[in-house]
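TEACHING EXERCISE
Course module: macromolecular assemblies
Task: Read the component lines below, then compare them to the predicted structure of the full complex.
Student: A.B.
Group: 4
Components provided:
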Amino acid sequence: MKIGIVLYPTFGGSGVVATELGKSLAKNGHSVHFITYSHPVRLGSFRENVTYHEVSVSDYPLFEYQPYETVLASKMVDVVKHEGLDILHVHYAIPHASAAFMAKMILRSQGVDIPFVTTLHGTDITLVGRDPSFEPVITFCLNESDAVTAVSKSLKEDTYKHFSTTRPIEVIPNFISVPADYRSIDRSMRKRYAEDDEFVLCHVSNFRKVKRVEDVLDVFKQVNEVKPSRLLLVGDGPERYKLEEMCRELQLCDRVKFLGKVRDTQHVLEISDVFVLPSETESFGLAALEAMAVGVPVISSNTGGIPEVNVHGVTGYLSDVGDVDDMAENTLKIFKDAETLDKFRQNAQTRAREFDLDTVVKKYEKVYDSLLETV
Ligand code: GMT
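Instructor-supplied answer key:
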């Protein structure tokens, strides 16, 4: 099959899912064409069956805002026609679904029929998409997509709550390729960040308000007062200055390390004892699943799709959004003794296996197959 994948090329979850899906489809023998504005961060170098098509918007003085969506739609038309694509799969509704609809209509006028799948990832529905400045376009695109998928049951419900659509939405969760047993992971790098008797807490995100990274610092402060610990913060974004200042105020600078954007977060997760995800809303929480895959239990809020991933008292703990005292208490429960920590580690990795990459990728292939049967 020849598949066009439209995505954000950044560190964000939707881009990671789209890139890993494309890589896996290419491994399965499909011809995959990534269409976006820069080289996707998780794509890596040259690989079989993968082509990258760059969308580049020229800077004309008349435009106060560059018409990315128009250029993207034109690029889709071009790639579909000249590479002979069978299907388009767009990740994150804004503006990818409306650009896909436009491309589909242009192609139809030229006698080419192509179905497009829209995968909803979270903020395209729960935060940005439901805003009146986007809502009518998103509703229209949901209704016009040939198939719609959402990454959790919670996101599917949110979509029906916020948009007037009755179209079927299939839940296809985020996925992971679970590496070797966590006990065989080389943790020698840990020495550079923590003493043997200290615990390592970790958080990975884009440091937007919705992630509530300040709660991570509050939780860390409380935990560190009882059990000497270190905190590794991975990522960057609008809240970083504020958080660095908060660190100074809390006098935690010697214990907290801001690592910035890291391409391969797995290695940081591997040397961590607990992953903290206190988000305000989170449609799935891919970052938590990535932590669990290397045997790291999760301390999280109980919002959105997180309870579909993190099992309370088994793979970590869930607390109400903003309840940092409960999160700190739960972290200390996990750190109680070596046996308890190990049990949580084991449970986390076992649970992550339920989101196995190959099984989930087959679900997307099934969606493509069913659409191509009806063309
Ligand atoms: O977390 C973000 O803000 C990035 C965002 C994205 O679309 O790039 O992530 C969303 O999609 C991920 C992949 O499906 C989900 O695992 C994240 O939970 C979701 N983020 C939110 O809902 C806030």
